[in-house]
Write a structure and sequence with these properties.
- Helix 7 packs across helix 8, helix 16 crosses helix 18 and helix 17 packs parallel to helix 20.
- The protein folds into 3 domains: about 210 residues, no CATH class; about 160 residues, no CATH class; about 60 residues, no CATH class.
- Helices cover about 60% and strands about 5% of the residues.
- The chain has a 7-stranded antiparallel sheet, covered by helices on one side.
- The chain is α+β, with helices and mostly antiparallel strands.
Length: about 500
């Protein structure tokens, strides 16, 4: 523990004395304090995983990313050339993966997006493993350091539009529950947060064009690299904002009517793009349902077979090997691909398949209406999608006791938004434009999550950028607060 603690002390001092992390007008210790808080929250997340799942180490995505990062790091000591091929993706091949990373689950999870964003988290962990000694605390500290930089970017971008004391704005941005929870982890979220913050800084804060270009470029790199669909949501929100600002000169009703009419007409006329989008969302939903219910993917020659839990009795699972004992139905799933799953009837022929992905199912799985590649059904699912992604979990929903924390956060966030609306101040056109863009971004993201995700635990994680946008809307709306007890804290 001495080495990780020494590194944390070094990072605290770096944050305290480096201009990169300082905020003008606030105490020089406010950022180091926030860094320590984020590490403590990350350790809390670690402990909650252990308590919830009863495991002796970090479980689920965070643990898998860390473990597979170590596998990739070990490749360097076998063949530096092969390591840099896998690290950069230049020269990566199925043969190379089969030789060095055959034991991984996420590295070869398919081509559902143009970039396998799970690989990029594994790549980052592999680099940190060179000096971490496999310490979770060191990996967590590095991730928290960059998400702290993201917090600074958001503060600089939105402080001019929030009429509250700087210290209150900073602590409010830091302590949004879902945001600090998921951005203080070993997952993709800290880097998504960083990418979003670079774009916010480019649009709202920096005035020099070369800096805007740099931050925009960094934003695109991080968002494409870690969650491309979030970038899509932002681009759509930016288009809506440009229409609102430059076409209709900040007139809300005409903007909304024209945007809705454009979506409707485009959906009718542009049949091929519409079908592609609907199929993509259908396939994503199908994969999430399989994961939520539980199932087994085994790798065959050129595809993957998917078996549901009730079919396990027809299989013999020995370690990483799977054999078929009795005739059974399955799916040719093309794991991670956007190709439509194909039903198939399998009979025992002595084949030995490799277990690729296996899950017992999720405690917080909920039934959702299948899209089934139908655009009309996608439209009908909008109320269900928004309900699931914005409001749930409910107290009687399945899942662990953590659902009560998420339930409380949802109502606190929207309670704050309601108060901010009641106590709203007079806004400038620019401020109304920012609120409009944040609202469009959050609605689109809520929709995508609700359409595709039938697991409440995953919903609470994926929606944090949308909830953060809602908090920002409330902070811009609300009048200045006169009582200022926070002045005793870090001023």
């Amino acid at each position: 523990m001495i080495y990780p603690l020494l590194l944390i002390v070094f990072l605290v001092l770096l944050i305290r004395y480096s201009k990169v992390f300082q905020l003008e007008g606030l105490s020089k210790w406010i950022m180091p304090t926030a860094f320590i808080i984020k590490i403590l929250v990350g350790l809390l997340l670690f402990w909650m995983h252990i308590q919830t799942y009863g495991l002796g180490d970090l479980s689920h995505d965070g643990g898998t990313f860390l473990r597979e990062g170590l596998y990739l790091n070990n490749v360097f000591f076998e063949s530096p050339k092969h390591y840099f091929q896998l690290l950069t993706g230049i020269g990566e091949s199925p043969a190379l993966i089969a030789k060095h990373l055959y034991m991984t689950e996420y590295w070869s999870s398919g081509d559902l997006t143009l970039i396998n964003d799970s690989k990029n988290v594994i790549r980052l962990h592999s680099i940190i493993h060179f000096f971490s000694g496999n310490s979770v605390l060191i990996h967590l500290s590095i991730f928290c350091l960059f998400s702290l930089l993201a917090l600074k970017n958001f503060f600089l971008a939105f402080k001019p539009f929030v009429q509250q004391p700087s210290a209150l704005v900073f602590w409010a941005l830091l302590l949004v529950p879902s945001t600090i929870f998921w951005t203080s982890s070993l997952l993709k979220e800290p880097w998504v947060f960083l990418g979003l913050s670079f774009l916010a800084r480019a649009i709202l804060y920096d005035t020099k064009m070369y800096r805007k270009a740099i931050y925009t470029g960094l934003s695109i790199i991080f968002l494409i690299g870690f969650k491309p669909y979030v970038l899509v949501c932002i681009l759509l929100a930016l288009i809506a904002y440009l229409v609102y600002r430059f076409v209709f000169r900040f007139k809300l009703i005409p903007t909304i009517l024209v945007l809705l009419a454009t979506i409707f007409i485009s959906g009718i006329l542009l049949e091929k793009p519409r079908n592609t989008i609907v199929h993509y969302l259908s396939r994503k939903q199908f994969d999430f349902v399989n994961v939520g219910k539980g199932g087994l993917h085994v790798s065959a020659d050129k595809c993957f077979y998917y078996f549901q839990p009730f079919q396990y009795r027809n299989l013999k699972i020995t370690g990483s090997e799977v054999r078929l004992l009795k005739p059974t139905d399955a799916y040719i799933a093309h794991f991670g691909s956007i190709q439509k799953p194909i039903p198939i009837h399998l009979t025992p022929k002595g084949e030995v398949w490799r277990r690729h992905y296996f899950t017992e199912g999720c405690m917080s799985f909920i039934e959702t209406t299948p899209i089934m590649n139908k655009s009309k059904q996608l439209a009908r699912n909008i109320p269900e999608a928004l309900t699931n992604s914005i409001i749930r979990p409910f107290p009687n929903d399945p899942g662990s006791n953590l659902k009560f924390l998420s339930f409380a956060e949802v109502w606190l966030i929207f309670g704050f938004l309601a108060i901010a609306w009641i106590k709203r101040r007079k806004l400038s056109d620019v401020e109304r434009g920012i609120i409009f863009m944040l609202a469009i971004f959050s609605i689109i993201l809520f929709l995508l999550i609700g359409w595709t995700t039938p697991v409440l635990g995953a919903i609470t994680r994926y929606r944090f950028p949308a909830q953060f946008a809602v908090i920002l809307i409330g902070m811009i709306l609300i009048k200045p607060i006169k009582i200022q007890p926070w002045r005793i804290i870090f001023l």
